[in-house]
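Notebook B, p. 112. Complex prediction, attempt 2.
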Amino acid sequence: MSDTPVQNALTALLPIKKEYVDLLRGKFKTTPINRDGLDAVGTVHFARIFVFEPGNPSGVPSNLAAVITTYDGDFRDYIQDFVNQPGVAAFFNDFLKAVDDKAAEGLDPVTKHATAFADLIMKYDATNPANTWGQWYSAYPELTVQNILHP
Amino acid sequence: MPESTPDPNLKFADPLKIHPEDLPDIQGNILHGYNMPKVRHFVITIGQVSAALSFLDALTSGSGLMSVTSAARWPPGMKPEYALHIGLTAKGLEALKLPATVNFDPGNFGSFLRGAASATVAQKVLDIGPNDPSNWLTKLNRDNADLAHVLLSLYTFTPEARREFSVKLRAMFDPVIPPSGAPGHEVLEWDVDPIIQFDPVTMQKYRLIHFGYTDGISEPIVDEVGLPCPRPQELPYVPAWQFVLRQGEMTSYNLPNPPELGQNGTFSAFRILEQNVKAFETFLKADGRDEAAQEILASKLCGRWRNGNPVVLRPDTPGQRLSDNEMRDFDYGNDTVGQPCPFSAHTRRSYPRGGPLVVVVGDKINHRIMRRADAYGPVYTGVDDGKERGLAGHFMCANLTDQFEFLMKQWVNGATFAGGKALSGIDPLLGNVGDVPKVPNQDKFTYWENGKAVTVNGLSNFVTTRGGLYLFLPSITAIKWMAANGGAANAWKIPV
């Protein structure tokens, strides 16, 4: 068994511009996630994206969007494959308009800015200590999405 | 010099297909390889900017002793005496003092801007351990990489022609290089002498590498106006923008600016890869393997028998050499086990062809590279002669990060290739065996035989990187543009 799982975790909490918070929360509630795009990449185990509710009991600011995923391999290496999927690209082109960070400006179309897009996401993942010194568990540390789908 | 302004007459080319009118503007070795068996690569430093600009002008205006060769079709039976190609490193472009309006988007072309010898790139392509750029040839190593500016690739048919045209080329670039005694004065010359084998059955010539395999069988075919529809088993044509820089919504990059500089160019990872044939043959012969067993193991390591036949189509014995189409046009079907072709076989790692357990959609056309590389050094005769031999040349693509580097990191050396199957290891021929982080059992190679896994121990690093360059291969228009616009007072600087 390998020392480290083949899977990796990402927990990015991105600040959202005030005027976009309700719009984005509503969109996430009403629009199903793009399954085809995520299926096509073939490395994503789980993915969640949402905006925190106002007045949540944890006291998390409601202008934060969470991008939470477990995936195989190197995020930066596969980011181009990810944003090459038209549905994924369209989603993030819209999403980036709402992100309250100057680095998000000019990343549309995200297909042509995959590296900068990865940098932006990783910047907010890096601020989450769970990914640097916290603990996480995998029930199947040697199995990738493809292993599971094609046993 | 005046600052550049975009050419109002420049037309953006079709991002999906090559059109006939594009050919005279694209360097000829990008779209098609040559069967010219005497090759010499020169690496030079720009010491005199004005001389360098004159040199670029002479290479494209017809006023010099030699010219850069375009992709324009040669009349039937009228091959030229030589072909000549030019590539520039980011430091080389900087040395030309191009106008500050030049832009190679660092998000798209960061690796090119950093250079092949940089620590960042070395980590990406696993040029670590013995392959580390600090160990490379003097002209190319990390200490001197900033002075490796221009690569000239000369292709000829005979040793005499190689000598003759080398003299002419030297006469052209001598004024460009720094004076004797100054840093960068030395020119690196690297001869490549493809090993050509004639097959009396197929009546065709084939190129070999020193490990004894037929080489250069399957290259991407860039989509071009007039190509026939692919045959049922044929792999898809690759859109033009993946190998020739184009403007378009679907591209994964912003065209370098100005468009007359970027369009119709491409990038190359130039590599000099030493091959340790003695170690390879010793590995095959270990454990008392007879000749037939050695050939079986050799076929599993590569994914092809040494005659080029894919093990997918000829699982048990090499058989008679298949036709070119049969050797090229196959897939790994639904093979989720790695039998007959192991997941780590070199050809499967280098191009998974959309087989299972690899990242799914698009692998038939994405992350591909165009190889224009051949054997250097004397043919191995079974005697340890202490001489260096290997493979050198260009590995071209429009996006070094998403094509060349992805291939080296995720496919050749990646732990999660083929879903990280426990048996997949890394590429036993090209992988950096022993030095790749987080991949266990790199010294073992496992394949399937009669339904049983066979593990062979003792893999070592059969290939060592001796040098590398990241190059921009400009279009003919771009070479002319650089000649006309270099030497700017407000000059472009590498932004990373």
